[in-house]
Amino acid sequence: MSQTYSALPNDTVRAANDIDYAYRDTGGHDGVAPLVLLQHFRGNLDYWDPALVDALAVSRRVITFDNAGVGNSTGRTADTVEQMAKDALAFISALGLSQVDLLGFSIGSFVAQEVALRRPGLVRRLVLASSAPKGAAGMHGWAPAVIGAVGTPQTSPEQHLGVFFAPSAASQQAGKEALGRMYARSDDRDAMTDWATREAQYDAVCAWGIPNHAELERVSALQMPVFVANGDSDPMILPRYSYLLAGLIPQAQLKIYQDAAHGFLFQHHAAFAADVVQFLS
């Protein structure tokens, strides 16, 4: 990669669904399936930790994007995971990609599951960070303290740190450093997500989490290798859902990162990137 993630330009591609998707592309590594990243609740291009993307981009072409209606992408934010997956597939097709690896984080991991189920031939390997299967009991919305921290019109860095990082001094310091890296870019930043995106995405989260034992069987159809990961103190998507998800997928590997919460992949960016690169290789 010739540029760090913080310096990459914002590009746009028009898809067959008439949506203009905003994205960033590290480029390079021809002949290897690119790694497409799917973002968390209310996140945009600037909410990926540059340290994580840069570490992944040493050996992979990494592509981040705003799904329909998010950030600088046009259209309306879908209110179901299923439609988000269709929109993500339209973006991947617009880039002319015939096979990809996917890394989905939080709600992005729900979308990644759906993409892999709908288009199994497209997805070579799948990484699910801070994830849960559809229909898992207890996932119908987030705890009041969590949605109160990240789901209000105005959120603070302190609230973000309280959900994305564990209470320990070490984890909180790692969180402050991660936020510093995310906000280091001053020019050409992505548009902040709006309230309509928050409402639509939370509707999708709640629908995904309606308890339904039969829905849990869906992920058993995933035949590609899958890496499931989470922090041991995640208050948003509890670690027990990672164990459940990994147990339902035939070729799943599981790792729980210690003294970490929802944003474990930013706190442990070097270790997580090394684990992902090894898995994808």
Automatic annotation (TrEMBL):
Keyword ATP-binding: no
Record-annotated AB hydrolase-1 domain positions: 34-268
One Gene Ontology molecular-function label: hydrolase activity
InterPro entries: AB_hydrolase, AB_hydrolase_1, AB_hydrolase_fold
Superkingdom field: Bacteria
The entry's keywords: Hydrolase
Alphabetized PANTHER family for the sequence: AB HYDROLASE-1 DOMAIN-CONTAINING PROTEIN (PTHR43433:SF5), HYDROLASE, ALPHA/BETA FOLD FAMILY PROTEIN (PTHR43433)
Stated name of the protein: Alpha/beta hydrolase
Taxonomic placement: Bacteria, Bacillati, Actinomycetota, Actinomycetes, Streptosporangiales
